[in-house]
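Researcher: Let's walk through a ligand-bound prediction step by step. First, I give you the protein sequence. Second, the SMILES string for adenosine-5'-triphosphate. Third, you return the three-dimensional complex as structure tokens. Ready?
Model: Ready.
Researcher: Here are steps one and two:
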Amino acid sequence: MADGDSPAADMVMYGPRGMGKTVLLNWLVDEAKRGEANDNSIRTSSATPNQLKNPAEIWGFLLSDEGWKEKLLSGETTAGFDAKVFFAKTWKEKSPTNKILLNTLISECKKNPLVFLLDEAHKMEPEQCLALLNISQQVQNEAPFLLVLAGTPGLSHFLTTVNASFVERSDVIGIGRLDAQATADAIVKPLNEHGIEIDDTTLAQVVEDSQHYPYFIQLWGAALWDLAKEKDLQKLTSQEITEAETKVENRRLNFYEKRRKTLSDLGLLPAAVAIATIFQDTETTTMDTLIDVIADNSPVDSPATQSVNEHLQTIIRHEFIWNPPDTDLYEAGIPSLMKYVLDRQREHVQERSSKPNQEIPAKNGNSDLDLGP
Ligand SMILES: Nc1ncnc2c1ncn2[C@@H]1O[C@H](COP(=O)(O)OP(=O)(O)OP(=O)(O)O)[C@@H](O)[C@H]1O
Ligand SMILES: [Mg+2]
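Model: Step three, the predicted complex:
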């Protein structure tokens, strides 16, 4: 882009929560800033959907502050008109198809290419999202402009409902778990930088327990770090691990329970349990299998208008399963959430059978233990 080339496509990144999408967007901004001193340096602008509620706000994020108002006021792009009147009208309308604004953005991008990053893009209002996609396409035809959308696995479906072919035309990147080496690096490097060592066996244990999932790696990293600081340790061994493990485990259970509760509130826990049962014997499954399982376990009181496919999309939106790019197969979303859901279901069944004639008391103040059949 710094050489004046338009990227061939926009970029869509999606993956379950906690995989590192936001971290990756911030990294992209840092990378772009490395050329800051150059004349044709890449400009970046970052937003979230609640900042883009109307076209005016979208333009506000796309156009650089200095450039466009001056240009419009000086009458440079409005020859033959009263610039101020025109400016006022343009400003008031600020429609997504406003040619003046588009041309201003194009000329800005010719000088300084723009990377526009939108996090949590699945939460965008469809109308505003469509406006943004259209602007992007028009600018990209003429100048170096890159739109980067990041969001949860529901993003792909959402974008397809906004514009049928957009995802097909984009560079789609699935943000999944790390490999073992990257996981080890994420633990070791920050500790080493501060003179803290960790022995190999201990590291292997942490890497395995994190399931290579960035959010859990972060929990482990924080717990180990706190421990080392608290006890003034230069070397972490399996002794410390046990202590840190309790901390990590508590946070993790809390994280799982919140997600299980959400599924339960949506009436989708029976379907989730059935899906988790399938995943006990496989790492991937097809959409047809999922549809069948959900149809057999749909919430009893869900409105007739809600189709099985909508339930599937809801389950995807809540990261229970996801469909990485370039495959038709579905995988587990947040690692081990399925195992947690199954374990809780088993506990529930056991409690029931051990107290057949009694109402089961709510555990931890949580009264939504009726998981259906
Ligand atoms: N490559 C990585 N290595 C190690 N830790 C990482 C990595 N990427 C992200 N993390 C850590 O994982 C956690 C989740 O990252 P991040 O917030 O970017 O995820 P996200 O995909 O944006 O999640 P959400 O969908 O909830 O916004 C953070 O604590 C972050 O520091
Ligand atoms: Mg994020």
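Researcher: And what stands out?
Model: The pocket of magnesium ion (ligand 2) is lined by residues 21-22, 119 (CB under 6 Å). The beta strands are 11-14, 43-47, 114-118, 145-151, 171-174, 197-198, 235-236, 284-285, 321-322, 330-332.
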